[in-house]
Write a structure and sequence with these properties.
It is found in: Membrane. Keywords: Cell adhesion, Disulfide bond, Immunoglobulin domain, Membrane, Repeat, Transmembrane, Transmembrane helix. Its main location: membrane. There is one protein chain. Strands 5, 8, 9, 12, 13 and 14 form a 6-stranded mixed β-sheet that branches. Strands 24, 27, 30, 31 and 34 form a 5-stranded mixed β-sheet that branches. Strands 32-40-39-35-36 form a 5-stranded mixed β-sheet, with no helix packed on it. α11 (about 1165-1190) packs across α13 (about 1285-1295). The protein contains 13 helices and 91 strands. Helices cover about 10% and strands about 40% of the residues.
Length: about 1300
């Protein structure tokens, strides 16, 4: 990233002499949000990232305390502006011209030849700043005052057992020399044989291998780096030797206390440097169990809210662990003697609901053991952690609750510790001051203690001075603004000497916290120091002023060849340097016109972007850099290549095991590029075995097996681009058949392993042995070893490792400081066994962490903060007790000293950050055994604020009746105040051009992601008046709205007519009705009706009718009663016909018959079926006629209503015999039931077969009379005539 510091000035048409003074009296926030409006003097820092010019506000409004000091310089600055504005217009743009490595160079695989220009020197000035690249050839030519690059921390504590190292490194040209002061006096290194200085560095090394006491070298040190252009200073480094004194010898008498009384066991550790970590254990090194009744205070004392009899079961020893020496010192243990009314320590009483009453302990209201009294006060520095503590006694044990008077506790940074007895507020700010109180309560009452918290602040930067590099005759300034509580004082120095005692410089003027330079010359070079301090600390910053006079020169190799893919976007970079800062222009193929506009875009840093590469863009491009001292040029040859494309892709396949599979992959590519085709399996490189054959356009797999199943990806790549195609191969396994008796037996899950045993115990490993369980007729394929630890996640089992089913003993790799417990699970093809019983526990010894937390991020949750988060480390990576994290951060572009804090959780919020600036972040793990490895640096960003500017010069072009094209000017990047998400258009329909048509004025929006300058808004309503506003959107939200624009959409086609209804009152007519369209979208000129008759698959000729705009009814006369009609109706405007609505007429009642007649009656199979049925009926009728002509008995069941006389002849089965020999009817006649003889008719009726006139028929005409047909064997043999049958009986007889 290249950083160029610019100033933006503009003058209004009318300006009075007091305007600068009036501006300084305005609110500081207003000053910080103004860009180039009016005549406000505002600095901007132009940042090139990946070749894109970004603008971020560097000037901020002064806080109220600074405004008064700035009044003196207001008029002075006002007089400078006119001349400076003229200079800026002549020299703009300012800064080092440099394009970041673009996508073209990365595709070509060419490292950027100017990669060594990474370190940048940015300055905020009236006239701008020049940036020096780190090209060695330029660095060796250009002079540069010293800059401190590395130094020890201000409070430097060292281990007395090691040599002392005080770091001080600097850079400059010529290389600086170093000297030191100790306690503000010159430190003569040559006179002390133990002290030496590293070569080409100012780092001091004090060696004690030959003797000496480190304490003799304690004091305050300061490093001076000097060359002929100035002197830079380090911080004042306070050197202290770590101390871990012994505990004084003492004999402690037993502590006698009444059961239920409070008790404090004082630790009083020896004072160490740094302070030791305190913890309580028994003399046998067992930790003391702590709870809300017994706990350790922040001062190290052990508090008993009330003493119980079981507290006598152990002794109590205070332990102090010293960080630097890694030693633990133990105090002589306390022993307790508890006087009680219940001498037996009955364990069953511990869970008694009223334990104290059961033991005869009197209940008491709470009282505070720490702090004493009802009120106290506490002071804390801004950015530190505030720890408030309240420990109370009472019976039963009191509960502690925390409150803030007049407000809520800050939920985002407040947490409770030590069983709610302590309240910790991290990263304290001024808003955390106030009164807090803790409330201790039990069932006997409550008591509270008020703590008044005052927040003070050591100095912190508002504007830290930056290095200033100018061309001869330019103007600039150094600004040093800091805040704190109390307000810090500012002291300026030059080359390490107070500015007041330095030689006078007519080109320099000091105005409080600002030094103004006018018409700088080569002799103005120096290093300035700003020291701001109050009673809580100080800040020291170096900033040099360097004046350069350099003609333009190119930084990249000459005549580069850039190859790009057709239709891609690319960028040609031309890094250059010069002072004054040169201007850059581009030409193609030696033509005289400058390239900018259309398909070309030249960025402010000089990079040329071609938005879409075409064949005609191939050629030689020349960049020319010019300033008043000369010019320089370079050429880039651009070649355009065809893209690589897979035109025949592999397809998904399903194959049986043992068959051959071929996956095709045919590629087109530019013939001048070398093509490489490779294959991936399941997104991993495919190993080509002897069963596979890889050809230019295919992959063949012989003898496919189950392991070949998966996804196969063909990757066709050249040095510039690549294309991918994926297919999935499914392998079908053969049907398994039992091969032996075992395979035929029922299979089940294996039994659990048993008898786990730990052997070969080592620091980082252990051997686990087990006895396998029964496999239940399915061989065990795998064993899974799981572990559980009791510190971070007790009771949760994790997979440790997996072993083949053929082993029952394995060596397990272990992590330090984990109390392991193992179990084993057996697996076969049926499933998993139940876990084995756990093994015994094994704790490994501790060690420093070997890794750091992952997924480190820095993101703003508010506009003035940055939340640093990470994924906490688990038990197997903690490696020791008290796992914590050292969080470091600093501004990325400033390379300031790292800020650091120790955190026990997984997040930390950095407050009071500028809006959306990049930070370098590091998170390092640390436990009681030491620190983890040096962490990687990640880049995070502070919070975003709402954008401050709206798009300008919004232009609208109407494309058609439903769409418009938008074009606007981009906003300055410093006004975005975050990541630019999109430009967004808000638009609404104000009215319709049709009278009396109500429209919805609901606001709609259209987004245009990224840094775009144009877009299209569609889906508008035609023939309407619209209004439109545009905003800039970042991660925080919308910015201010632009000027409201109005536009009108032209007439369009209407929507479909509403409620189109088709009714058929009779078989001769069809009535049509409809309503006007919901959206006319213009002036209606009529309706168009198209309709057509259809019958089955036959369709008639289409008929078209046109109606006036007021007609909404029409009647159609049917041509025939059988056909149906299909109607299509649309409305028309001058533009044309709109969407049509389609309906069909209802089906007539006989449509089913008509359809069958039209569709079925003409089918051959139907005709054949009807002929077969007719033939069958004919045969049945012939059989019936033959049977009837023979006569016979008609047995009928007795169903008559009239009773029969005794003389009536009767068969045994109740039938009557009408074929009696004595009364035999004539041939061809038939006797009826009433005895009359009825002449047989040719068209006999089914009534003749019934019981006289009583024969009944169903509703469908079928006969339901009942017949009893009895075939007497003897009668049949003696009478040749058979009984006459009904058609039903004839069918039975035929069957």
């Amino acid at each position: 990233m290249v950083k160029i510091c610019l100033e933006c000035q503009s003058e209004p048409e009318e300006r009075g002499p007091g305007s600068a003074l009036r501006e300084l009296l305005t609110d500081g926030e207003t000053a910080s949000t103004d860009t180039c409006s009016g005549a406000r003097l505002t600095d901007f820092c132009a940042v090139w990232d990946a070749g894109v010019f970004l603008v971020s506000a560097a000037g901020k409004g002064a806080p109220s305390g600074v405004k008064k000091r700035r009044l003196n310089e207001a008029e002075t600055l006002n007089s400078v502006r006119e001349a400076q504005f003229q200079r800026l217009e002549a020299a703009r743009p300012r800064g080092l011209g440099r394009g970041a490595r673009g996508p073209v160079l990365r595709m070509a695989g060419q490292p950027p030849p100017w990669a060594y220009t990474a370190v940048l020197l940015c300055a905020l000035s009236l006239g701008g700043a020049i940036e020096i690249p780190m090209d060695p050839s330029i660095q060796n030519e250009l002079s540069q005052p010293p800059t401190i690059t590395k130094q020890s921390v201000k409070d430097h504590i060292v281990d007395p057992r090691d040599n002392i190292l005080i770091e001080c490194e600097a850079k400059g040209n010529p290389a600086p020399s170093f000297h030191w002061t100790r306690n503000s006096k010159f430190f003569n290194i040559a006179k002390d044989p133990r002290v030496s200085m590293r070569r080409r560095s100012g780092t001091l090394v004090i060696d004690f291998r030959s003797g000496g006491r480190p304490e003799e070298y304690e004091g305050e040190y300061q490093c001076f780096a000097r060359n002929k252009f100035g002197t830079a200073l380090s911080n004042r480094i306070r050197l202290q030797v770590s101390k871990s004194p012994l505990w004084p010898k003492e004999n402690l008498d037993p502590v006698v206390v009444q059961e239920g009384a409070p008790l404090t066991l004082q630790c009083n550790p020896p004072p160490g440097l740094p302070s030791p970590v305190i913890f309580w254990m028994s003399s046998s090194m067992e930790p003391i169990t702590q709870d809300k009744r017994v706990s350790q205070g922040h001062n190290g004392d052990l508090y008993f809210s009330n003493v119980m009899l079981q507290d006598m079961q152990t002794d109590y020893s205070c332990n102090a662990r010293f960080h630097f020496t890694h030693t633990i010192q133990q105090k002589n243990p306390f022993t307790l003697k508890v006087l009680t009314n219940h001498p037996y320590n009955d364990s069953s009483l511990r869970n008694h609901p009223d334990m104290y009453s059961a033991r005869g302990v009197a209940e008491r209201t709470p009282s505070f053991m720490y702090p004493q009294g009802t009120a106290s006060s506490q002071m804390v520095l801004r950015g530190m952690d505030l720890l408030l503590e309240c420990i109370a006694s009472g019976v039963p044990t009191p509960d502690i609750a925390w409150y803030k008077k007049g407000g809520d506790l800050p939920s985002d940074k407040a947490k409770f510790e030590n069983f709610n007895k302590a309240l910790r507020i991290t990263n304290v700010s001024e808003e955390d001051s106030g009164e807090y109180f803790c409330l201790a309560s039990n069932k006997m009452g409550s008591i509270r203690h008020t703590i008044s918290v005052r927040v003070k602040a050591a100095p912190y930067w508002l504007d830290e001075p930056k290095n200033l590099i100018l061309a001869p005759g330019e103007d600039g300034r150094l600004v040093c603004r800091a805040n704190g509580n109390p307000k810090p004082t500012v002291q300026w120095m030059v080359n390490g000497e107070p500015l007041q005692s330095a030689p006078p410089n007519p080109n320099r003027e000091v105005a409080g916290d600002t030094i103004i330079f006018r018409d700088t010359q080569i002799s103005s070079r120096a290093v300035y120091q700003c020291n701001t301090s109050n009673e809580h600390g100080y800040l020291l910053a170096n900033a040099f002023v360097s004046v350069l006079d350099v003609p333009p020169r190119m930084l990249s190799p000459r005549n580069q060849l850039i190859r790009v893919i057709l239709y891609n976007r690319t960028r040609l970079d031309c890094p250059f340097f010069g002072s004054p800062i040169p201007t850059l222009r581009w030409f193609k193929n030696g033509q005289g016109s400058n390239l900018d506009g259309g398909n070309y875009h030249v960025y402010e840093n000089g990079s040329l972007e071609i938005k879409m590469i075409r064949k005609e863009d191939q050629g030689i491009y020349t960049c020319v850099a010019t300033n008043i001292l000369g010019k320089a040029e370079n050429q880039v040859r651009l070649e355009v290549k065809d893209p690589t494309r897979i035109y025949r892709m592999p397809e998904d396949q399903v194959a049986k095991r043992g068959t051959t599979v071929q996956l095709e992959c045919r590629v087109k590519h530019d013939p001048s590029l070398k093509l490489a085709v490779s294959w991936l399996k399941d997104d991993e490189p495919l190993y080509i075995s002897n069963r596979m054959k890889k050809e230019e356009d295919s992959l063949t797999i012989f003898g496919v097996a189950e392991r070949d199943q998966g996804s196969y990806t063909c990757v066709a790549s050249t040095e510039l681009d690549q294309d991918l195609a994926k297919a999935y191969l499914t392998v079908l396994a053969d049907q398994a058949t039992p091969t032996n008796r075992l395979a035929a037996l029922p299979k089940g899950r294996p039994d659990r392993p048993r008898d786990l045993e730990l052997t070969d115990l080592a620091e980082r490993s252990v051997r686990l042995t087990w006895i396998p369980g029964d496999d239940n007729n399915s061989p065990i394929t795998d064993y899974v070893v799981q572990f559980e630890e009791d510190q971070f996640q007790p009771g949760v089992w994790h997979d440790h490792s997996k072993f083949p089913g053929s082993v029952n003993s394995a060596v397990l790799r272990l992590s330090p400081y984990v109390n392991y417990q193992f179990r084993v699970i057996a697996i076969n093809e049926v499933g998993s066994s139940h876990p084995s019983l756990p093994s015994e526990r094994y704790r490994t010894s501790g060690a420093p962490p070997e890794s750091n937390p992952s997924d480190v991020k820095g993101e703003g949750t508010r506009k003035n903060n940055m939340e640093i988060t990470w994924t906490p480390m688990n038990a197997t990576s903690a490696f020791g007790p008290n796992l914590r994290y050292i969080v470091k951060w600093r501004r990325r572009e400033t390379r300031e000293t790292w800020n650091n804090v120790t955190v026990w959780g997984s997040r930390y919020v950095v407050g009071q950050t500028p809006v959306y600036v990049p930070y370098e972040i590091r998170v390092q793990a640390e436990n009681d055994f030491g620190k983890g490895p040096e962490p990687d640096t990640v880049i995070g960003y502070s919070g975003e604020d709402y954008p401050r500017a709206a798009p300008t010069d919004v232009k609208i072009r109407v494309l058609n009746s439903t769409a418009i094209s938008l074009q606007w000017n981009r906003v300055y990047s410093d006004t975005v105040q975050g990541q630019l998400r999109e430009y967004r258009a808000y638009y609404w329909r104000e009215s319709s051009l049709l009278k009396n048509l109500w429209v919805s004025q609901k606001r709609q929006q259209a987004g245009f992601p990224g840094d775009r300058l144009r877009g299209v808004v569609s889906r508008l309503f035609p023939y309407s008046n619209y209004k439109l506003e545009m905003v800039v959107v970042n991660g925080r939200g919308d910015g201010p709205r632009s000027e409201t624009k109005e536009f009108t959409t032209p007439e369009g086609v209407p929507s479909a007519p509403r409620r189109f209804r088709v009714r058929q009152p009779n078989l001769e007519t069809i009535n049509l009705e409809w309503d006007h369209p919901e959206h006319p979208n213009g002036i209606l000129i009529g309706y168009t009706l198209k309709y057509v008759a259809f019958n089955g698959t036959k369709v008639g000729k289409q008929i078209v009718e046109n109606f006036s705009p007021n007609q909404t009814k029409f009647t159609v006369q049917r041509a025939d009663p059988v056909s149906r009609y299909r109607f299509s109706l649309s409305a028309r405007t001058q533009v044309g016909s709109g969407e049509a609505v389609t309906e069909e007429s209802p089906a007539p009642p006989n449509e089913a018959y008509t359809n069958n007649q039209a569709d079925i009656a003409t089918q051959g199979w139907f005709i054949g079926l009807m002929c077969a049925i007719a033939l069958l009926v004919l045969i049945l009728l012939i059989v019936c006629f033959i049977k009837r002509s023979r006569g016979g008995k008609y047995p009928v069941r007795e169903k008559k209503d009239v009773p029969l006389g005794p003389e009536d002849p009767k068969e045994e089965d109740g039938s009557f015999d009408y074929s009696d020999e004595d009364n035999k009817p004539l041939q061809g006649s038939q006797t009826s039931l009433d005895g009359t003889i009825k002449q047989q008719e040719s068209d006999d009726s089914l009534v003749d077969y019934g019981e006289g006139g009583e024969g009944q028929f169903n509703e469908d005409g079928s006969f339901i009379g009942q017949y009893t047909v009895k075939k007497d064997k003897e009668e049949t043999e003696g009478n040749e005539s058979s009984e006459a049958t009904s058609p039903v009986n004839a069918i039975y007889s035929l069957a």
